[in-house]
Amino acid sequence: MKDFLKYVAATIVGLLLAWAVFFFMGLSMIVSLSSATEATPVVSQNTLLKISLSGIIAERSFENPFALLDNERLEKQGLEDLLHAIDVAAEDDDIKGIYIEAGSVSADFATLQELRKALQRFRDDTGKFVYAYGDNLTEGAYYVCSVANGIFLNPQGLLDWHGIASQPIFFKEVLDKVGVKMQVFKVGTYKSAVEPFILTEMSDANREQVQSYISDIWTTMCQEVSLSRKVSIDSLNAFADRYVALAPAEEYKKMKLVDNLMYIDGLRDFLRDKLGGEKVNFVASSQLAKLWSPTNRSKGSIVVYYAEGDIVDEAARGFNVESQIVGQKVIEDLDRMANDENVKAVVLRINSGGGSAYASEQMWHAIQLLKKKKPVVVSMGGLAASGGYYMSCGADYIIAEPTTITGSIGIFGMIPDMSGLLTEKIGLHFDIVKTNVASDFGAMGRGFNAQESAALQAHVDRGYKLFLDRVSSGRGMSISSVDSIAQGRVWTGAQALKIGLVDELGTLNDAVLKAAELAKVNKYAVLCSPAPPSMFEMLIEPQKEGYLERELRLTMGEYYAPIAMIRQMSHGNYLQARMFYSPNLK
User: Fold this and answer.
1) What is the C-alpha separation between 415 and 573, in angstroms, rounded?
2) CB under 8 Å to 309, separation ≥6 — which residues?
3) How far apart are CA 335 and CA 367, in angstroms?
4) What CA–CA distances, in Å, run from 338 to 206, 296, 341, 512, 517?
5) Catalytic residue among 96, 191, 344, 374
6) Which tens digit of pLDDT belongs to each residue from 510-530?
7) Minimum mean pLDDT among 20-24, 101-105, 419-423: which range?
């Protein structure tokens, strides 16, 4: 028996030692790979900044060593890095221009517009060139590339130019089949976030607002492409009606959508000729961005604070969760900036469709406290709607892109009644003993009664009135005026300017300049916050998302987000200042 126990103990110890050895070997490999990407790039003569216009473009990116082990991840890069790289390229005499290698890119229209404007500014201010090439150009990629001095396409390539469509997904019949009914309490004729769960098609009001904002975005895109490519807007719309993605490549040249057709070797020869026959060196945007640094700090700094993703009360942790705006974390950061004498102004870069109404209100209050000490300017990204607008409305100044989606001033609550599933489908039965009328409020096995529903609707009504009041005081408008453009309605940035929800159309750079003007500073550093997590923080951070959760998210794709929203609401965040989960624009 003793020998047996010795063998068992020895086996266990051996397994633990082997696990430890493999763990530290893997950790060392990850650290080594990550360190290899952190080296400062050296820019030689005749260099071109290479922008890979493919994959996902989010507001920010950070080095995640664990992503090196996940081959299912799409390439993800940050707009922040792209803009910084373009700024460095503009100042460096050894960088002669920009080469865009375009493909299939996933980003909201305002992000693409911000990038396009940065490229246009690069051309206009430096006199350097921008050229673009692609084997296949998606519509978003083409929109950005249209600002280039020349666009080249593979002779067998495709160019997609089809307009914009919105295709929401409806879950009501699926829920009916499993015995789940959504109990909805909302304010706002246009507040359509709940529609996928209670309807099988868009309401007339929602169809009206969606048609309005996608038409406005499309008009902006056509105007800008028309100006750059010298093609009439009528022609661009005619091309969009003709399924040009299926046309032979020669047609794109006849349409003046591209300048020439060539394979990649021909493109290399072309770029070499542009540099006088010299060897062409490329530097990736992610590398060149590392050379960007704040300017003179002698008179303080302007902090660009990024707030991207769902607004939540508590953070979901792990490497695979999406970006989030965690109310308590933002409040702490804003308080720290308010008390930092070196910070002269704050630019809030907001890209969010909203979320928790409670967290939105708490962050609104923190912004008001910050405003008492220094200017606060909001720069809107692709989305600054519902809770995202709640955060924005109290700032000193608001700047949006024309294609930003904003507004959606409204509140709703949505709580599933699972009694049909539990009692009729599964066969569970419930009974209750209570001391007071409201003791079983929210109990399983039944929906809300009339008295409970009235109380919940009154709660939502108060939330909406508070939202109107916050917008009214922040924008200097009467409550009735705000209500007339609220009701949950979504607007583009261009439309929002006309009705007083934003102050100016422009870029993040414009917001920084406005913040400096309000702070009355000439020399300042531009600092970005919050700082990305360190290697150590990523290693010790526990993951809450397990294997099944990750696989479910990857498998379901765009169907996963609405289900995740319901789960979040079931954890107590039932009062939401949120627009429809995703515009689902195609």
Assistant:
1) 10
2) 322, 323, 324, 325, 351, 352
3) 9
4) 40, 21, 8, 17, 18
5) 191
6) 999 999 999 999 889 999 999
7) 20-24
For residue 165, count other CB atoms closer than 10 A to its CB.
11
The radius of gyration of the chain from alpha carbons, rounded to an integer in Å, stands at: 27
Of 296 and 344, the one with more pLDDT: 344
Identify the residue whose tokens are 């150590």: 536
Rounded Cα distance, 579 and 326, in Å: 18
Dihedral in degrees, nearest 10, Cα atoms 578, 580, 581, 582 = -130
Residue linked to tokens 């809300």: 448
For the question of residue 191 being annotated catalytic, the response is yes
State residue 542's pLDDT score: 45
Q: Which of 212-221, 341-350, 561-570 has the lowest mean pLDDT?
A: 561-570
Amino acid in the structure at residue 163: G
Contact 134, 263 (CB under 8 A): no
Residue entry with tokens 């933002």:
330
The one catalytic residue among 146, 285, 360, 386: 386
d(CA 139, CA 159): 7
Domains of the chain (ranges plus CATH)?
47-177+204-291 (3.90.226.10), 301-532+573-578 (3.90.226.10)
> What are the pLDDT digits (tens) for 139-161?
999 999 999 999 999 999 999 99
State the amino acid at position 466 in one-letter form.
L
- Reply yes or no on whether 344 is catalytic: no
Count other C-beta atoms under 10 Å from residue 274's C-beta. 19
Please state, in angstroms and rounded to a whole number, the distance separating the CA atoms of residues 309 and 578: 11
Question: What would the two tokens of residue 54 be?
Answer: 């493919």
386 torsion bin: left (phi>0), alpha (psi -120 to 50), beta (else): left
pLDDT above 90 covers a percentage of the chain that reads 63
Q: Which two tokens stand for residue 404?
A: 């930003």
Output the pLDDT for position 111. 96
Helices (H) and strands (E) in the chain, counts: 22, 21
Structure tokens at 176: 């009916």
- What pLDDT does residue 318 have? 46
Helix, strand, coil tally for the chain in percent (to 5): 45, 20, 30
- Which ranges constitute the DSSP H helices of 476-526? 479-485, 493-498, 508-519
Separation of alpha carbons 489 and 192, rounded Å: 9
